[in-house]
Write a structure and sequence with these properties.
- With 110 residues, the protein is mainly α.
- 56% of the residues lie in helices and 10% in strands.
- It contains 5 helices and 2 strands, in the order αββαααα.
- The protein has helices spanning 4-14, 48-52, 55-74, 78-91, 95-106; strands at residues 24-28, 33-38.
- The chain has a two-stranded antiparallel sheet.
- The two termini are 17 Å apart.
- The mean pLDDT is 96.
Length: 110
């Protein structure tokens, strides 16, 4: 189930706006998350039905975010990447390319 934040963000972006903490504030008072303030010019606060319509897109966005976070970790630090590239150039190997291909194949976007 997509988070309330994700669905709200998708609604805002679908209406050609960007998330701005000074214009929207979510709150959870213990009975669930809701929009406490929403002050975008020319954009009405979304209804529950409007947010619900972003469930599928929200699930996809959150799944992709998880994949990208895992890829980022598995790609290793930029220092290790540079070391692989240096060794590849020196030895005529494809270690870096092979590493990147494996990370992408192990963590497909969808």
């Amino acid at each position: 189930m997509a988070s309330f934040f994700t669905k709200t963000k998708l609604y805002i972006e679908a209406n050609s706006k960007t998330w701005d903490d000074t214009k929207v504030r979510l709150q959870d008072d213990g009975s669930g998350v809701y929009i406490k303030t929403f002050t975008y010019d020319g954009l009405a606060k979304p209804t529950a039905e409007q947010l619900a319509s972003y469930e599928t897109a929200g699930n996809a966005a959150e799944a992709l975010s998880g994949v990208l976070a895992k890829r980022k970790k598995e790609y290793l630090s930029w220092q290790k990447q540079m070391e692989m590239i240096y060794k590849d150039q020196k030895n005529g190997t494809t270690t870096f390319k092979d590493h990147c291909d494996k990370v992408r194949s192990d963590n497909p976007k969808g």
